[in-house]
């Protein structure tokens, strides 16, 4: 530890296990809800379909509880619990399938249609300037849940990347997820 100009303590008076230790100039935004993501809570431990897969389980829940924005014939749109930006949602086929090449023609059409509709709804609600749209195919490519295909639809705005995610590894979201879900569902085309 080093001396901090505003600290009334010297390094010898405080040990690392003494509370928070020596004060520093950083402010902290505590995000304990992210521990579920960090610790892999509810992340499937196998590639099998069923109740162990959140994307298989979500459609059995009421839309508001599951954060489902819209249900299609072969896929559904659901808000991401750990959004990169406000309105970040995913389009997920109902069928438990890992790879895009395994989708049926009907599933491909529904994923594409729901992606287009999601963009329209997000533009209506929040005037997004652009979008990042994509799938991470396989764990090595960054898929958090590699066993069940899902396409991300992430709205973007000019200047939406600020110091918080870069310096503090933190996102500031202006709206609670249930409120975002209700707004998008109401404005779905």
TrEMBL record:
Transferase recorded as keyword: yes
GO molecular function: nucleotide binding; nucleotidyltransferase activity
Pfam families registered for this protein in UniProt: HIT
Gene3D superfamilies per record: HIT-like
Sequence positions that bind substrate: 80, 152
Region (Disordered): 1-22
CDD domains xref list: FHIT (cd01275)
Keywords: Nucleotide-binding, Nucleotidyltransferase, Transferase
Motif window: Histidine triad motif: 148-152
Active site: 150 (tele-amp-histidine intermediate)
Residue intervals of the HIT domain: 54-163
Record-given protein name: ATP adenylyltransferase
Source organism per UniProt: Kribbella jejuensis
């Amino acid at each position: 530890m080093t001396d901090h100009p505003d600290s009334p303590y010297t390094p010898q008076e405080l040990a690392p296990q003494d509370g928070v230790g020596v004060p520093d100039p950083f402010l902290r935004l505590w995000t304990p809800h992210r521990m579920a993501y960090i610790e892999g809570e509810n992340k499937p431990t196998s590639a099998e379909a069923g109740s162990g897969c959140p994307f298989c389980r979500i459609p059995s829940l009421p839309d508001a509880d599951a954060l489902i924005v819209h249900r299609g014939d072969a896929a559904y749109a659901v808000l991401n619990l750990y959004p990169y930006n406000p309105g970040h949602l995913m389009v997920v086929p109902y069928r438990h399938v890992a790879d895009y090449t395994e989708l049926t023609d009907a599933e491909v059409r529904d994923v594409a249609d729901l992606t287009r509709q999601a963009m329209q709804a997000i533009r209506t609600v929040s005037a997004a300037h652009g979008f990042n749209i994509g799938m991470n195919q396989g764990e090595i490519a960054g898929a958090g849940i590699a066993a069940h295909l899902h396409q991300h639809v992430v709205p973007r705005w000019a200047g939406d990347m600020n110091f918080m995610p870069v310096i503090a590894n933190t996102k500031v979201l202006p709206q609670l997820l249930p409120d975002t879900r209700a707004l998008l569902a109401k404005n779905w085309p």
